[in-house]
């Protein structure tokens, strides 16, 4: 005689796994509870708990329902051998500590955001990662004694690059020739490029850099400038028509922080996808918006007496 439990309808194992994985994606903080359901469920969802690791100071830096990690806790786990670093794909490091050990423990990281002050020479740990997305300060990444080489294997798989350092554009403030950044065009799969903190500039000269980069980087589908003044500086430039007619060029407000990065890592919806839609779907190409409009989102609010106003 069969027992009653065996007669009950059984959910196909593939569907059951898909349900739990979807629930874990939507509510990462519930993963520890899901792990108590059954051993098979624990095996499915535990890696998802560590797929995206934001190393922050406070939970206010992460969206509601998403975990955050302290670097000392992670280092203790690494030392004890209980850290599933192979599961990590998205890693954000905003705090000080032994970042070299943490990076080495996450060998499959594909999406890395590391704050501008990388700390003591982390190039060896970062350069061996299979990165597809990188947000960092290039000058600090390479360091003072290493040439800025975009043919390095670090960039061989990279599709998305967000550059945090503005000093690269101002030769008076650094020994690095900003024209070296034109070599970004040799990154073989670079499709998305963003520059942050260019609001420090007080003239239109830096635009001279973006034009040849757009011309030379054939794989580039999107160039974002996060800036408060670009959209009023461009009208002064001698080649303004060529720049604004290039549909890949987009200006956005610099209001994207760790929460947006974490949501983007989980859902694929972030400022990259918003700008992609602005450029590609039904906007500039279709005439839904003016082809000469290159500001995605609200235009920055500037004071009437701002020195850059025209």
Walk me through the structure.
This protein has about 300 residues and is an alpha/beta fold. Among the domains are: about 10-50; about 120-280. Helices cover about 30% and strands about 10% of the residues. It has helices at about 5, 15-25, 30-35, 40-50, 70-80, 100-105, 125, 140, 205-215, 230-235, 240-245, 260-265, 270-280, and strands at about 50-55, 90-95, 110-115, 135, 160-165, 190-195, 220-225, 250. An eight-stranded parallel sheet has the order 1-2-3-4-5-6-7-8. Helix 9 links the parallel strand 6 (about 190-195) and strand 7 (about 220-225). The N and C termini lie far apart (about 90 Å). Mean pLDDT is about 80; it is low at about 1-10 and about 300-310.
